[in-house]
Design goal:
Helix content of chain A: over 70%
Radius of gyration of chain B: 24 Å
Largest interface: A-B, 73 and 54 residues
Order of helices and strands of chain A: HHHHHHHHHH
Distance between the termini of chain A: 49 Å
Oligomer: heterodimer
Number of strands of chain A: 0
Shape of chain B: flat
Structural class of chain A: mainly alpha
Radius of gyration of chain A: 23 Å
């Protein structure tokens, strides 16, 4: 079995550059993001986790290459170059595939890694068919949401002190985000009320419009912001009594806060409120 | 059952998470014990600021609406609703 695995790896090591060269020589890989996403779901639905993970690599690599997932700093600049971009997309996406397989409780096999590499290469040539590519990624791009989910994932994997500190840091990022978003909304809220006043000189008519606004959109945002602030506070209380709280509870609280922060950013983005740079 | 669009969004989020995790791990691994302590303290301070801001959040929201309603009632020449 070990021999077969080694042979497969050797074969893949030879095949991979050949496929890559052949691909570069011919037309660049033009894969459709929607199509790949559909196949990925089908594979996971059928329990074909390795195929699903490899296809997922195609997606992530393609999205990085297309700029739908932005790499920070110099990595971002390198990603814009032809070869550098491909290498970075593959490395990042390969990491994603491994984590996906681990999360699905699957063994990391040489086959999976090689499939991931080849798929990553194909994905890095994916064409821009992702819906909404040009619109600004809203909640999915919020660093606070990502930080909270990373912290939750870390807690599920290990229980070392650094993971608890990371949870605390994620909570700090989320706190800054919610406060900044809340302050932006408070300004917007006052501006909306001023606008109603300017547009409706008639007092009785204005009262009706203010009540409609207060019981509708205004109340919805208050509720979403309250939920997020309370969710973050809940993490604080769990971390303060870390010995009493289980890892599972803290991870659940972090995931709940991620959802709540996501809802805040989503709602404010829909309302067209310009959020501070630290939020997006 | 999720659709392709949701899967694409998930992939974007996953990419972002992978990057954030790598960044966090690197930052943590290269920090000294004192720096780590400072990071945690800063995070706690941020959370306290949120708690302080949120303490009067609902009251401030209600006050803005009440003030607007009062002005409208005055303009209507009647009593406050």
């Amino acid at each position: 079995m070990q021999l077969i695995s080694r042979l497969l790896v050797a074969l893949a090591l030879i095949a991979f550059p050949m496929i890559a060269l052949a691909q570069e020589a011919s037309a660049p890989a033009e894969l459709d993001a929607h199509e790949i996403a559909t196949h990925t779901i089908e594979a996971f639905d059928k329990g074909q986790y390795q195929i699903g993970a490899a296809l997922f690599v195609v997606l992530v690599a393609g999205l990085i290459r297309m700029g739908a997932v932005k790499l920070p700093g110099k990595l971002g600049e390198a990603a814009a170059s032809k070869w550098g971009g491909r290498v970075i997309a593959i490395v990042v996406a390969q990491g994603g595939a491994i984590v996906t397989a681990m999360a699905a409780g699957k063994k990391i096999t040489p086959g999976l890694i090689m499939a991931g590499l080849i798929a990553g290469w194909l994905g890095s040539g994916m064409r821009s068919q992702a819906p909404g590519r040009k619109r600004k990624a809203k909640a999915a791009a919020a660093p606070a949401v990502a930080a909270l989910l990373v912290a939750a994932f870390g807690l599920q994997l290990t229980g070392c002190a650094a993971v608890y500190d990371n949870a605390r840091r994620a909570q700090g990022v989320a706190s800054r985000t919610v406060k900044a978003a809340g302050q932006a909304w408070e300004k917007y809220d006052q501006a909306r009320l001023d606008q109603i006043k300017a547009e409706t000189p008639n007092g009785a008519e204005r009262t009706k419009r203010i009540l409609e606004y207060a019981n509708g959109e205004h109340a919805d945002v208050v509720k979403v912001l309250n939920t997020a602030a309370k969710a973050i506070d809940a993490i604080d209380r769990l971390l303060d009594g870390v010995e009493a709280a289980s890892k599972k509870n803290i991870a659940a609280a972090l995931a709940a806060a991620a959802g709540a922060v996501d809802a805040v950013v989503d709602m404010l983005t829909k309302l067209g409120i310009k959020l501070p740079s630290e939020v997006l | 059952m999720i659709n392709a669009t949701e899967a694409l969004e998930a992939a974007k989020l996953f990419g972002k998470i992978a990057l954030t995790a790598a960044e966090a791990i690197l930052k943590w691994a290269t920090a000294s014990a004192e720096e780590r302590k400072a990071m945690v303290a800063a995070a706690q301070a941020d959370t306290q600021e949120l708690v302080d801001w949120h303490a009067g959040f609902e009251e401030r929201a209600q006050e803005r609406v009440t003030k607007a309603l009062k002005e409208a009632a005055e303009d209507a020449g009647g009593t406050e609703p």
